[in-house]
Amino acid sequence: xxxxxxxxxxxxxxxxxxxxxxxxxxxxxxxxxxxxxxxxxxxxxxxxxxxxxxxxxxxxxxxxxxxxxxxxxxxxxxxxxxxxxxxxxxxxxxxxxxxxxxxxxxxxxxxxxxxxxxxxxxxxxxxxxxxxxxxxxxxxxxxxxxxxxxxxxxxxxxxxxx
Length: 162
Fold this sequence. Notes:
single chain, alpha+beta, 4-stranded mixed beta sheet, two-stranded antiparallel ribbon
């Protein structure tokens, strides 16, 4: 985890290999390899920026075995005009996304519990079309697993030769 406090709690609860690290330094090591990386609860968004997403996808080749996958969920940036239309008034299979809206949204976020406030971090939202474009450029095949409103799940499969 990136939070020293979270690592301390894990250690108190018996986790033997808890470490305070960020995804980029772990991927740069490339010491272990995996069949699948699972990024739940908008884990792709923790890449923070469009450049951070590209860096993550490049470095993930070091730890994902050939033919391996990255599976995760994400949210598309909000559509200002869609906010004015109640979700119950539009069919779920019709996109209200204006193609002229930016493909990304970056926000500064933090976690708070009681009076304890964590360090701010950047959270990135992306359209599936943009993720697909970037993933293909970085050696991953992107498949849309499901979509509901602005949320979607995707599977990125490592392409041969990367």
